[in-house]
Amino acid sequence: MIAAISWLAFTPKAPGLDIQHFDKINHLAAFSSLTLIALLAFSVPASRIYLGLLGYGITIELVQSQLPNRFASVADIAADGVGIILGAGLYWITEKWLMKKWQWLR
């Protein structure tokens, strides 16, 4: 998933949907998914995952600032952060509610 997000972030932008803030929705979806998957997959403190993914989002923006036809955006980093928070919430719902309700899934 990291490879796919990196490829999408660093390749020239293809003509896309003309929906206002569509790129922010993409950031939100990507980082909430990454957060949920990482929290479910790794037994490390959640803070490391959050900081690592936020660092990844900042790195994407720094690289994009050096690419032609791309630009860095603080709003994109904010959308990444909101996605991380959303992913953490989805993890909480999954881990604390669903997994306890259906313990046989473990």
Provide a descriptive summary of the structure in words:
By secondary structure, the chain is an all-alpha fold. The protein has one domain. 72% of the residues lie in helices and 0% in strands. The chain has four helices and no strands. The protein has helices spanning 2-10, 22-41, 46-64, 74-101. Helix 2 packs antiparallel against helix 3 and helix 2 crosses helix 4. It starts with a helix and ends in a 5-residue tail after the last helix.
Summarize it:
The protein is an all-alpha fold and 106 residues long. It contains four helices and no strands.
Rg calculated over all Cα atoms: 15 Å
Counting helices, strands and paired strands, the structural category is mainly alpha
Helix content: over 70%
Order of helices and strands: HHHH
Layout: helices, strands, pairs:
Elements: H1 2-10, H2 22-41, H3 46-64, H4 74-101
Helix pairs in contact: 2-3, 2-4, 3-4
Transmembrane segments: 28-51, 71-93
Pfam family, one: VanZ
Domain VanZ-like: 25-93
Which features does this protein show?
106 residues, mainly alpha, elongated, transmembrane helix, VanZ family protein, transmembrane
